[in-house]
Amino acid sequence: MKIEGALSQAMTGIQQGLASARSHAGQIASAGQFNNESPASLAEPLVGLIQDRLQISASTQVLKAVDDMLGSLFDAKA
At what angle do helices 3-30 and 43-77 cross, to 10 degrees? Predict the structure, then answer.
């Protein structure tokens, strides 16, 4: 995979993870305010937040790998 492709995928993963986390956080914040939902209704958004965290973490690791790769290339050129 080309460096710019990996960089693009990492940034997309981070952005999608953050957008999904915002959505799940909104669901948690609004749960039970307007109706009598049970605490079980929070299970899906809470699990979603954990998945979002893992996606963002994996994407940042890809971003770190790209950074390390670019650093190595610059060092080799110098």
Answer: 160
**Quick check: helix, strand or coil at residue 4?**
helix
- Whether pTM exceeds 0.85: no
Q: What is the 3-state secondary structure (H, E, C) of 29-73?
A: HHCCCCCCCCHHHHHHHHHHHHHHHHHHHHHHHHHHHHHHHHHHH
pLDDT digits (tens, 9 = 90+) for 33-70: 666 666 667 889 999 999 999 999 999 999 999 999 88
- What is the token pair recorded at 75? 């060092």
Amino acid at 62: V
End-to-end CA separation in angstroms for the chain: 24
Reference 11, options 45, 53, 56; nearest CA is 56
